[in-house]
Amino acid sequence: MGGAVSSLKTVATLCLLALSTSAYAQSKFVQSHSAMGTIYSIELYANDAASADHAMQDAFDEIDRVDDLLSNYKPSSELSRINREAPLTPVTTDPETFAFLQRSMDWSRASEGAFDITVGPLLRAWGFFFHAGHVPDESRLATERERVGWQHVMLDARVRSVAFADHREMELDPGSIGKGFAVDRVVTLLRADGVMAALISAGGSTVYALGAPPGTDGWPVIVRDPRDGRGKAETLLLKDTSLSTGACTEKYFIQNGHRYCHIFNPKTGRPMEDVLQSSVIDPSATDSDALSTVVFVMEPKAAKRLLADRPQTEFLVLRASGACDSLHWRGAICRK
Amino acid sequence: MDRRLFLQGLSASAVAAGVLPVTAAAAEAQERSEADVAKQIAASKDSSPVRIGIIGPGSRGKELVRNLLRVPGVKIAAAADVYEPRFAQLNELCGYEVAAHKDFRALIDRKDLDAIVVATPLGLHATQVLPALKSGRHVYGEKTMAYTVEEARAIREASGSKALYQVGHQYRYSPWIRAAIARVQAGEIGDVTHIAGYWFRNNDWRRPVPADDPGGKLEHLINWRLYNQWSLGLIAELGSHHMDIANWIFGANPTAAMGSGSICRYHDGRETDDNVQVVLSYPQGKRFIFTSTTDNAKMGDQLWVYGSKGSLNLTLEDATFFYEPAKVKRVATGVEKGVTTSASYQAGGEMPYRGPGKPVELKDPEDATTIAIRAFIHCVRTGDRPIADAEVGYGSALCVVQADKARRERREVEVPA
Asked: Is residue A193 within 8 angstroms of chain B, CB to CB?
């Protein structure tokens, strides 16, 4: 009996020792990196600076790799190659890029076009790419609308090829899903590197909470409430999930006293009105990134129908009218 | 100018001065009609099946696989590696199960492969490339071609029209580098006498190794670049690309090499130096200077090509020309206009160039590795000789191996033909 107690004590001591050399002994490290037109920042816990440095280096290298794959600003990227060649002939691409396009098309189909990675020409026409926002004339809009439409992107899974129907000069723009895709790749890589707690942020628009800081239940993530006269914000605790936000509060232009938002309704070809901000929580950062646009653009009832069967997906939409729509949302903003 | 000489990268004055490529084979290797080059580089609609075996699907190997899978008709049929986790990673990348072999010889023995990619540590290249070529398969071999001059010669001899060899010097396929070097060869910056290559990084060049590593075997396997048994260090892994470009621009291989290096920053058990310098001597007193460090990234990866009329800056993403100040010129005599006196002061002509220079404008600059791999598959299908063929690989291998020898022996060494 005495021996058993002694063994238990030994086990308990060993457990404490294990804890003290794992999570509790770890220090927090932070680093930032410019890529994909934003600043990626990572906070992570590691045993020492050298391990943290390796993990950060791996993560930022991976972000750069995804940028080289999906950037529509870099002419040498795989997506740029597809944009150039797909109007002419089916383009065979690698499985990773093809899977990215498939996921994009899945959300386009499911959202009936509320999410559409071909919307780039419209953003360009409205001057959102070069900080030169203006209302374009109708003839320009009509021309650009011809170049938009996810249903014209033909994917052939059998040979992993991409083509634009009727040789349309379209443009795949990863702006509303690419950062989430990069964050997911980083999460996979950090887990493989043995990182237990990290917060990865793509300019704040998509964040992923990997594990939780030692001794806590999750990483705090603050969601603002941009509606006039409302509460400032709420803080959510996230663990092993992502949160993406789309907002008209930072990227917009005002013409003749009217505010035009950079998030478009691909069906009307015009900026969204009334919606100020959407946030989506989902275990996949790729999905939360895409869904933050989906719920921004879709009618609230339709969005709820679409996501009702995804209990791990939560969304919140805040409108200039003061309305607040949510589904499965863990926070209390809509109840305030 | 004679087209052949133009393609060799020799200006008329250089020809007059007697600068010729050191071997006829080297000259021939550089002679490519632009039509041939364009054919290899162009996107193809040919989707006839090409079955690839890859030896060493590590980090670089996987990048090659990604690019292979962008070519219609290509299937990764088999892989060989001694590090088992690579197989699952490769399957995930391909989206299907690739036949796995722990012994590369079993992969070479397969009868269903059209070509073999070798992306293993440098010390193993010849061991795997030679039997692959001898089996009659075309080979894409990562740079540097070989660990010794003898091995490089053997690969050059084993390759031919029946078993093509393409070396992983993808910058030979880079649109902006090709366009810029064509302009240098046409005399845009005059006679080129010096080239400087910088490859600066600020990290320890280590990859993470699983904690459970009895005897440090995985450390040596995963961080092979740090150990002499497999690696010639920064000179090979980074410098070989620059040395190949110097050979390309000078139209010759060097005749002598000097080298220096030390472990200056990372005293962590590594054997290869963490900072190195190389000077290669070319005919007519021309020089290429390479310097690489691993604790400062200011210079990044770039080359400066210096000619009598200007300079060219080459990077991973672009190419930019700068021009020397205008020299004295004869003018017509007539009534003297005089000069207005002033108190102005201008810094002397020794100031470095400032300003943006003139970038090489290209409409669709594609990724160099994407093009190199597509060109390799074109050669597999057609039998065309690769742009970066065994002769190109041999040239840069000579530079690397002899520069490393000079570094070790701390003396200038001859670079054989």
From this structure: yes
